[in-house]
Each structure stands twice: as structure tokens, then as C-alpha cells.
Amino acid sequence: MNMRIEELHLQNFRGFRELKLKLPPDLAVFIGVNGSGKSSILDSIAVFLSEFVSLLQKTSKKKKLEFDISADDIARKRNRNHIN
């Protein structure tokens, strides 16, 4: 089973008021200066995937999933070696 993210739509997530990204089918690379939102995009995908994994067994394989995730759903803890 192959899965990929076709489109990412963020609303009021960290520094983004609204962002819509259509991702290419093969590879996406995020390039930008510090503070431009690259990590926020990846963190939003991580939040989505954690919700997706918890619901994966409860849904059919062909069903489209959409999530509303607010800032209250996200906890971020910094460490010198990694970010949780």
C-alpha cells in the first residue's frame, strides 16, 4: 500500500495564517532561510501523521481523511539534541 500527501493546507498554524501546498508525486524539498517555516511545515505533517496512524485501523482504505488540528493540539519541547 503506497500513500502520499498530495496537498497540505495549513490555517493559523504557527507562523502561517494560511498556506496551501500541492506536493509533487515524487519528491518535495523545502528550502528557505532560518525562520521561514520549513520546520513548521514538517511539524504539521508529523502532527497529521500521528493522528492518521491512530485512526488508520478504524477507517476504510479508500476513504479520504481530513483533520482540523489547532495550536492546542501541539506540544513542542526543545532539547539540545532533538525536538519532540
UniProtKB/TrEMBL annotation:
<protein>
    <recommendedName>
        <fullName>Endonuclease GajA/Old nuclease/RecF-like AAA domain-containing protein</fullName>
    </recommendedName>
</protein>
<dbReference type="InterPro" id="IPR041685">
    <property type="entry name" value="AAA_GajA/Old/RecF-like"/>
</dbReference>
<dbReference type="InterPro" id="IPR027417">
    <property type="entry name" value="P-loop_NTPase"/>
</dbReference>
<dbReference type="GO" id="GO:0000731">
    <property type="term" value="P:DNA synthesis involved in DNA repair"/>
</dbReference>
<dbReference type="GO" id="GO:0006302">
    <property type="term" value="P:double-strand break repair"/>
</dbReference>
<dbReference type="Pfam" id="PF13175">
    <property type="entry name" value="AAA_15"/>
</dbReference>
<feature type="domain" description="Endonuclease GajA/Old nuclease/RecF-like AAA">
    <location>
        <begin position="3"/>
        <end position="79"/>
    </location>
</feature>
